[in-house]
Fold this sequence. Notes:
Blueprint: H1 3-6, H2 8-11, E1 42-47, E2 52-57, E3 60-66, E4 75-81, E5 85-86, E6 109-113, E7 138-148, E8 153-162, E9 168-181, E10 184-195, E11 200-202, E12 208-213, E13 226-229, E14 235-238, E15 249-252, E16 268-275, E17 278-285, E18 296-297, E19 304-308, H3 312-315, E20 324-326, E21 331-342, H4 348-360
Antiparallel strand pairs: 1-2, 2-3, 3-4, 4-5, 6-12, 7-8, 8-9, 9-10, 10-21, 11-20, 12-19, 13-14, 15-16, 16-17, 17-21, 18-19
Amino acid sequence: MKFKSIINLIVISVTIGLIGCNSKVKEDTNTAPPMEEKDEYVKLISKEEERKVEVWFGEELFTAYIYPLEMEKPVLYPINAAGNIAITRGFPLDPRAGERVDHPHHVGNWFNYGDVNGLDFWNNSYDIPEEKKDEYGKIKHTSIVSSSNGERGELEIKADWLGPKGDIILKEETKFLFSENGNSRIIDRITTLTAQEQTVNFKDNKEGAFAIRMARELELPTDEELILTDAKGNPTEVAKMDNTGVTGDYLNSNGTTGGDVWAKRANWCKLFGQKDGKTINVVIMDHPNNPGYPTYWHSRKYGLFSANPFGQEIFSKGKEVLNFKLEAGEKTTFKYRIIINTDNELGKEVIDKVSSDFASVQ
Length: 362
């Protein structure tokens, strides 16, 4: 992967200007770094003892790359829109009054999958009994390769996808690019996975892959009380809750709205709603070089917002099958973009233009 060529991804974000642990992480106890000149507006601060790298936009914490020992994967958490408005759910790291407490493996923004050589990386968390851990995989952060500050911030990391006995199934190299344009904050993630000593099979499964668990206010209002099962048949109850202040809705690139975006293919999907008196638009964009493009969306009313390129057999009800695999030594790369916009109405035509530009970058 030639990461230098990927830096051009951020240039595209100019279009958006047209529309305007212990390792436990606390969202409101961070101290802002000293103000810098404009060329140091985006600043990354490594806190090794706390096992995180904070990303600051001026005096506001945007997000942090965290890799606590007690978690089964590294994630970006929290993620804040401009004005310190948290768009991610607090639970399980920082529970807030009135939010859901289901699915403790849904933390911030992450990338993993529910069936990698038969191991479930997606559902692994502290909630899995020790006697069942041999059915699950984990992603272990191994190093910070580089970081840089400026008008945009860059963070490059390495991680290992491990089996229950510590065997390395995949090696991961990920670069995050953080930028801001007007009322839009942008995260580009470029992840390369390399199979190690054996073939790696990603069996079609609904549990994946590039996801955000959203704040309660950005969920979709629903009176449903659900019991959802994972691929192993394990049930999770999603309780009926008071919908006061719950304002979210979905829109995808094909014009589909609401809960109907689930199990549909689309180039991009937007979740939008009101929080703290602001209009919040959150867009996830797929890239045409990604396997399974255009991705299916595993996006739920209760706040799971996820792109899953692997689950084709499940989402198509058997009409399509992918069963993606990497032979030993083979690699694949995924590119995703997240846009977090406040105040402006991020319409379909504008998102289509940004998505088209993003797709043109190789």
